[in-house]
Automatic annotation (TrEMBL):
<dbReference type="InterPro" id="IPR017452">
    <property type="entry name" value="GPCR_Rhodpsn_7TM"/>
</dbReference>
<dbReference type="GO" id="GO:0004930">
    <property type="term" value="F:G protein-coupled receptor activity"/>
</dbReference>
<feature type="compositionally biased region" description="Basic and acidic residues">
    <location>
        <begin position="334"/>
        <end position="343"/>
    </location>
</feature>
<feature type="domain" description="G-protein coupled receptors family 1 profile">
    <location>
        <begin position="60"/>
        <end position="309"/>
    </location>
</feature>
<feature type="transmembrane region" description="Helical">
    <location>
        <begin position="123"/>
        <end position="153"/>
    </location>
</feature>
<dbReference type="GO" id="GO:0005886">
    <property type="term" value="C:plasma membrane"/>
</dbReference>
<feature type="region of interest" description="Disordered">
    <location>
        <begin position="322"/>
        <end position="343"/>
    </location>
</feature>
<keyword id="KW-0812">Transmembrane</keyword>
<keyword id="KW-0472">Membrane</keyword>
<feature type="transmembrane region" description="Helical">
    <location>
        <begin position="293"/>
        <end position="312"/>
    </location>
</feature>
<feature type="compositionally biased region" description="Polar residues">
    <location>
        <begin position="1"/>
        <end position="22"/>
    </location>
</feature>
<feature type="transmembrane region" description="Helical">
    <location>
        <begin position="86"/>
        <end position="103"/>
    </location>
</feature>
<feature type="transmembrane region" description="Helical">
    <location>
        <begin position="203"/>
        <end position="228"/>
    </location>
</feature>
<protein>
    <recommendedName>
        <fullName>G-protein coupled receptors family 1 profile domain-containing protein</fullName>
    </recommendedName>
</protein>
<dbReference type="GO" id="GO:0007189">
    <property type="term" value="P:adenylate cyclase-activating G protein-coupled receptor signaling pathway"/>
</dbReference>
<feature type="transmembrane region" description="Helical">
    <location>
        <begin position="258"/>
        <end position="281"/>
    </location>
</feature>
<feature type="transmembrane region" description="Helical">
    <location>
        <begin position="43"/>
        <end position="65"/>
    </location>
</feature>
Amino acid sequence: MELDIANTSQISTSNFTPSSTLGPPDLRDGYDLPVYGLDTGRFYSLHVPALTCIFLSLISAILTITLSFRKIPRRAFFDWTKSERFIVYMAICDGAFNVAHSMDHLHIATTKSHVYPASLCQFYGVMLLEFIMAQTFMVNIVAVNAFTLMIFNKQLKFGKRDWRLLLWIFGFPFLLSMIALAAKQFGPNGSFCFFDGVNGELAQFLLTTLPLSVILIVNATLYVITWAKLRSIEKHLKLSLGKQSSGSKMKHAAVRAMSLFVLAFIFQWWAMALFGIWVFANPGSVPPAIHHTVTTFSNVGGIVNLGVYLLIRKRVQYQGSASSDQSHSTKRSGMKETSHTDL
């Protein structure tokens, strides 16, 4: 009897020991992660500011599109200046991003759990990747266009009705999204639906963090070079001629307008790049400050781009008067007039 008790005790001890040393079971996917903030009291401090920024951004995006079409009723959309068309494309990206992300955050905030069914969470992830990368690629095109215009006096050709631009900024991210979806990389990350917090870390790094970080650096570099060249030319003209031609003023105003997109992009997405790098380098240990920062800055795009729109409106109004003056002078001199839609 004593032997049986000893054996039983030994068996129970041996059965208990592995479970105590192994710790929690392996995580299968993002649904095994805890919902961020529920156990620390930071749940609403994450989602309430995020939703506030998202809805303000959505309102701003709608306002930008509405004002754009109301202010320019006499010309077809593809006869607008490039800067005017860029701001509409940006507002579309902001609006679609905000709609998907607001539903995501609202679902989590009201249920205090992950988004179900999984296919819905994956849909939100696809939408976020599509429009984050659409903005990323588009602003990079804007930065390159401003750079080539300022340095080489040439512009990128977007094709009839901007088909090359639209295929690049919307088509390529859609292809990436479908590949990631087929590979089951989307899911909850604890805070919202994007790349799966367990299985999608490498995909997030390759598809968002790496290109976003590289393009942030490239855009910032092109911005500095472009702005330095612009300042140098204007300073030289002021010292030598004292007055710029209207054509030169139009080009410089266009470069300034395009540069605003670059600054707005850097302001909005630097935190997302930092978040992605942190997740990839040390998953599971992202500080709360980083969580709150990324859910604030990445959700204010519509607000920032509304500001860009209002500044561009001032440039367009000035450009209209400059165009009129240039038209009179070119008629007297017999010179060919440059179309403002190229800028």
